[in-house]
Amino acid sequence: MNAVDAPNATNATNAGRREHGESLVVVGNGMAAIRLVEELVRREAQLRITVIGDEPGTAYNRILLSAVLEGSHPATELRLKDEAWYAENGVELISGTRVRLIDRDARVVRLADGRTVPYDRLVLAIGSAAALPPIRGLVTSGGDLSPNVHAFRSMADCLGLLNALPGARRAVVIGGGLLGLQVARALGVRGLEVDVVEAAPHLLASHIGETAGAVLRRSVEELGCEVHSETRAVKLTDEGLLLDTGYLLRADLFVLTAGARPATSLAKAAGLFVRRGVVVDQTLTTVTDPRIHAIGDCAEYRGRTSGFVSPAWEQAGVLAARLCGDQDRYEGSRVVARLRASDLEVAVLGDPEHATGDVVEVANPIRGSYRKLVVRDGVIEAAVLLGDLSRIGLLTQLYDRRTVLGEGEPGQLLFGERPAGEGSVLLPDDVEVCACAGVSAGRIRACADVAEVVGTTRATTGCGGCAGTIRLLLAANNTLPTQAATAGQ
Amino acid sequence: MTPTKSTETHCPYCSLQCGMRLESTRKGVRELSVAVWPEFPTNAGGLCRKGWTAPALLRHRERLTSPLVRDRATGELTAVSWDEALERVAAGLVKIQQRHGRDSVGVFGGGGLTNEKAYALGKFARVALRTSAIDYNGRWCMSSAATAGQRAFGLDRGLPFPLADIEDASVVVLVGSNLAETAPPAARHLEALRANGGRLVVIDPRATATAVRADMHIQPVPGTDLALANGVLHAIVSAGQVDQDYVDARTSGFDQVAALVAGYWPERVERITGVSAREIVGLAQLLAQADSVIILTARGAEQHASGTDTVLAWINVALALGQPGRPHAGYGCITGQGNGQGGREHGQKADQLPGYRKIDDPAARAHVAQVWGIEPDDLPGPGKSAYEMLDAMGTDDGVRALLVFGSNIVVSAPNASHIGERLDALDLLVVADFVMSETAARADVVLPVTQWAEETGTMTNLEGRVILRRQALTPPDGVRSDLEVISGLAQRLGVPTGFDTEPEVVFDELRRASAGGPADYSGIDYGRITRELGVFWPCPDTGNEAAHPGTPRLFLDRFATPDGRARFHPVDHVGAAEQPSPDYPFYLTTGRVLAQYQSGAQTRRVRELDAAAPGPFVELHPMVADLLGVVDGEQVRVATRRGQMVAPAKISTRIRRDTVFLPFHWVGANLLTNDALDPSSRMPEFKACAASLERVGGAV
C-alpha cells in the first residue's frame, strides 16, 4: 500500500466500523483466523474486530515451518501481516495471551492476563494441538516435555528445534504422517541421521494403502532415513527411545509428530457441543450458541475435522460472507494434501483409502512411483501420486472441479504424455514448416539452397524460427531419398 | 524491372509496425510490391505473410468508394455525395444533442488510427461535439498494462527499452504472449536471445508456436497468472534472492508484498494454477540466478477482470529481482494494435487529454484548452470506458448516436450479441471504414476513408518509438481521409477552424498539446523521424540548438513517480469471474492466428491469408475429443451463458485438458466471451470464461 495516500481512506472506513458495528472477537491468530479477518477487511465489514492469539506477534504462515526447519525458507519471512496492517484496518490485536474462558451469559471472554473482552459474536479459530502419544518419560514430572523432546506445531517449537540442532547428530521422529515425514526430511537435509517410528503398518497410513506405503518407504529410506513401522515407542529414557520391538533408538532429539487434536477444551468448558471438534452447521455456527462460530482445525462439520489449510480458508470465506449479510453456506471441502519436503513427491487428493469408486492404479517401485485414481461416475473422488507428480497440476484441477472424464481418460492420465515430434527431416511434403510465410516442406525441398528458399518462398524472413528445420531439409536433399521416392517404394 | 518509386513505410497491422519499402513501377499501383527495409531496427528486415501481402487491400474489389446512407424503412444503403452524407450526419448529431444533451453522442476510435487521427478525434469530441463520450478499442487491448505501468512506475510506455534489448537479457519471460504468431518478426529477437545464450520462458495455457521454442513452458489454468507470479515471488523470497539493495534504493512498498506472498507457498499455487510446485520453484530459481531478466506481458495476462493486478504481480517479481531501470532488464508490455501505444496517449481515451494527460487534472485542462483556443471549463470531463459506453447505447443513460472510426465493434466487443442489440437501439450509427466491415454493414451512414499507404501519419510502436507511415500512392476517387471527415463534420457542427486536414500540420499541433505532458512529443518532427529511424518519447522541445535525443530507455535514473521510486502493490488472486461448472465445464480462451489480424476486416479479404486461415476452429485436447466423440475437423458447438457458435475441432495436445481455444478474427468467438470488467482498467475478461462443448458432427 502506498504509505502516502492510503491510510487516510482506510482509517475513515475503519472509524465507521468501530463506531457502528457489532463487536466480533476472533479467538486464534493462525491461518484460519487471519484469513477470516482479511476477508472481512476486504469486504469492509461493519464490525469492530478483535483478534486474540496465544502466540506472540502477528499472524504467520504455519505451513512454512517445515521449510524453515529444512533451511529452504528464511524464518524472517513467515509473517503474513505486520502490526501496521492490523492498525490500519482497525483490527485490535491482542497477542501472547491465552483465552481462559468464555462466559456465554455475559458474552465476554476472559483472558489469562486478567483482561475481559466483550463480544456480540465470537469465532473460535484456535486450531489444534500436538497429540501426546502414550510414551513413558515423554513429559517431566512438572508437566512439560522432556528437554530433548520437541513438538512441531508453532513458530516457537520450530525455533526451539532449530536451536537444538547444533551438535545434534541423530533424531527420532515419532509419527510417520505428513508432518512427520516433512520434519524427518528437513532434519535429514540438515545432516542428521533420522529414524521414523510409526505405529501403523506403513507410512501415511491415514492417506495411502499398503502398496503405496511400500513404495514410499523405499523412497524415504533411499534418502537415508530409517523407517520403523508397525512399531510403538513405549518409553523414553536417558539411554534413548525404547520400542515395543525391544529396539532402543539412541538420539539427541525426539520430535513428536504423531497427530494433532482439535483444540476444544475452551469450547467444552463453555458448554458448547463438542465431539472430535466443535460441532458446526452449514453456516459455521456452533449448534449450541448462535453467537459463536468455529472454523479451521478446531471445527467439526458433518462428523469431520480437517487439519488442512484449504478447508479452513474456504470456511473463513463462507463465514466472512455470512458476517457481512450474505447467505453463503459451507458444503464441505475437497482436500489436497501435499507433502512439503525436498526430493519426496507426494500428493493425496481426498480420502483414497475410504472413497468408493473404481480404482485405476499404476505402481513402479523401481522408479519409486505410484499413482492411483478412485473414479466414480467419471469423476475423480480421490487420488494418490507418489514419486511422479508430472500430472499433479491437471489432476487437482479435474478433482477440484469434479470434471467428468472419458472412459479411457483415467488410464491416460496416469501415464506421461509422449513428446511431440519436431523438426524431422521425414516431414511430409505438405507440412507447413514456415508459418510466417506459409511454406510447406515440399516447397523447401524443391530449392537448392537457402538463398533460393528466401528468394522464392520468403521462408525464414519472418520470425526466423524455421531456419534450422530448413537447413536440415536442404541438407537431407543431398543425403536422403526424396519424400516422393520413399512413398513410392 | 527497376522501381520508379520506393517509399519507406510501415506495415498496416500489428504494434511491431515493421519497416518495409513499397515499390511501384511505371505500370502503376497494381504493381505495388513490398520489399525489405533492413535498416529499420525493430523488425530488422523481417516480415510475415500479413506484411508481404498488405498491398492486396489497396485496390481491393470490396473497397468502399462512395458514402452510403441507409433508408431505415427499407434497410437499403444508397450511394450519396460526400456533402449529402456529412450534412445528414451533422444534422442527425445536432438533433440528437438538442433533444438528449451533449453526452448523447459518442465517438468510438481505434488503436490502428495514426496519432494525428487519434488526436483529431479526441479534439473533435471535446471541442466540436463537446461530449465526454469518447473511448476506443484499445481499452480492450493494453489498458490493464497501461494502468499497472502508471501505478508501478508512474508512466505507461509499453516497452521501456528498444525491442532489440531483449537479445542481450539472460532470461526473457513472456506472460500470455504468442509473439511468434501475433508479431512474427519480433520473434527474431528471441532467436537472437537464445543464440546469445539467453533463456526464454513462455507462460501460456497453450503450447503455442512461441512456447514450443521456449526453454521453459509453463501452462497455467486461464486466469491464474497472478497467483503464479505471487508463487514465483514467494519462492524468490524463500531462496533469499530478493535484491534488497535495489528494493531499498529504488522502490517502496515491498514489505507488504513480502507478507502477502508468504501466503502463496508453491503447493497452494500449484492447486490454483495447475502448474506443479516443482515448476514454480524452478522458474523462480531460473529468474533469481539470472543477471538480467525481462518480463513481458501481453493480452493473455491482461485481458482479465483482474488484468491490472495480474500485471502488477509480475511487476512485483521484476522489482524484487532488481530489474526495472537496468540495462537489458525490466518489465514491458507487448502492445497489440498498430498504434496501440500512440492511440492511448493523445486523447481518444475517455479519461485523457493529449500527451497522456489526465482529463480531470486542472493544469492539464488549462494547457490543452489554451492550445485548442477554448476555456478550460468548456472541456467535458471523463466519460465512460469503451464497453460501458457500448453497453449503455440507446438507454436513458447512454449515447443515442455513435461515430466509429477504425474499429469493428460487432466482431471485437465481448458479449457481442448483446452489443449488437445495443447498436440496433441507436438513433444514428456512423462508421468510417475502407471496407464493409460487420459494423459498417449495420450503420446508418458509411463513410469510405483512406487507408495506410494512401495517407501519411505517425504511429507509436510497441517500443514507444514514434515512426512515420508515408503515403505511397493516391487514394481511389471517392474516398476521403479521416482527418478530412473530421474536419468536414466539425465545419457542419459550427466549428469551422481548428481541424486541419494536413497530417503534418495536425502533428505540429499535437506536439504543442503534448508539450510538458508525460508523453511529450514536442521535440519530434517528421524530419527527425525520417533521419533517426523513429524517435522515442518523451522528447521535449528544448527550444534551442541542442535537440533532446528522445528516450529509448526509461527509468535508468529514476521512475516517473513523485518520489522517483517504483511502487510494489500487494495483489491477491481472485481468478476468472466465471468459473467452470457442471453445465459449462471448460475454460474458453481466445486469441489470434498468424494469418489474420484483429476482427479480420482487412486480412480476411486478402486471398492468400484467407486461404491460410479460412475460418475459426475449436482447439481442444485429445482427451476432450474422446469424451465428445469427435474426430479432427468435425463440427463442435461451443456455448457459454452468452452465446454459441459451431466450428470444426482442431485436436491438439498443445492445449490444456480443461481449456478450449477459439481464434477471434471472425464473428463468433466474442458472442461467447465474458463482459466482466477490470475495476481499474475497465478491460473485459476476453481470456477466460466457462464453456460447454457438444459434437455436432459432419463436415470433416
Description:
The complex is a heterodimer of chains A (489) and B (700). In chain A, 29% of the residues lie in helices and 23% in strands. Chain A has 15 helices and 27 strands. In chain A, strands 3-2-1-7-19 form a five-stranded parallel beta sheet. Chain A is globular. Mean pLDDT of chain A is 90; it is low at 1-16, 417-424 and 480-489. Chain B has four domains: 5-57, ADC-like domains (N-terminal domain of TfIIb); 68-140 and 339-536, Rossmann fold (3-Layer(aba) Sandwich); 144-333, 3-Layer(aba) Sandwich (Dimethylsulfoxide Reductase, domain 2); 586-695, Barwin-like endoglucanases (Beta Barrel), CATH 2.40.40. Chains A and B meet through helix 10 and helix 11 of A and helix 5, helix 6, helix 9, helix 10 and helix 11 of B.
Concise account of the structure shown:
The complex is a heterodimer of chains A (489) and B (700). By secondary structure, chain A is an alpha/beta fold.
Structural topology:
The complex is a heterodimer of chains A (489) and B (700).
Chain A: H1 6-20, E1 22-27, H2 31-42, E2 47-53, H3 65-70, H4 83-88, E3 91-95, E4 99-103, E5 108-111, E6 116-118, E7 121-124, E8 128-130, E9 149-151, H5 155-164, E10 170-174, H6 178-189, E11 193-197, H7 210-222, E12 225-228, E13 233-236, E14 241-243, E15 248-249, E16 253-256, E17 260-262, H8 265-269, E18 278-280, E19 292-294, E20 299-301, H9 309-323, E21 336-338, E22 346-349, E23 358-364, E24 369-376, E25 379-386, H10 392-400, H11 409-414, E26 432-434, E27 439-440, H12 441-445, H13 450-457, H14 467-479, H15 483-488
Parallel strand pairs in A: 1-2, 1-7, 2-3, 7-19, 9-16, 10-11, 10-16, 11-12, 18-20
Antiparallel strand pairs in A: 4-5, 5-6, 8-17, 13-14, 14-15, 21-22, 22-25, 23-24, 24-25, 26-27
Helix pairs in contact in A: 2-9
Chain B: E1 5-10, E2 19-25, E3 28-36, H1 49-52, E4 68-70, E5 77-79, H2 82-100, E6 105-109, H3 115-129, E7 134-136, H4 143-153, E8 171-175, H5 179-182, H6 187-195, E9 199-203, E10 216-218, H7 225-238, H8 244-250, E11 251-252, H9 254-261, H10 266-273, H11 277-288, E12 293-297, H12 299-302, H13 307-320, E13 330-333, E14 352-353, E15 357-358, H14 362-372, H15 386-391, E16 401-405, H16 409-412, H17 416-424, E17 428-433, E18 445-448, E19 457-460, E20 465-469, H18 482-492, H19 503-514, H20 526-532, E21 535-536, E22 566-567, E23 586-591, H21 607-612, E24 618-620, H22 622-628, E25 635-639, E26 644-651, E27 659-663, H23 669-672, E28 689-695
Parallel strand pairs in B: 6-7, 6-16, 8-9, 8-12, 9-10, 11-22, 12-13, 16-17, 17-18, 23-27, 24-26
Antiparallel strand pairs in B: 1-2, 2-3, 4-5, 4-18, 14-15, 19-20, 20-21, 23-28, 25-26, 25-28
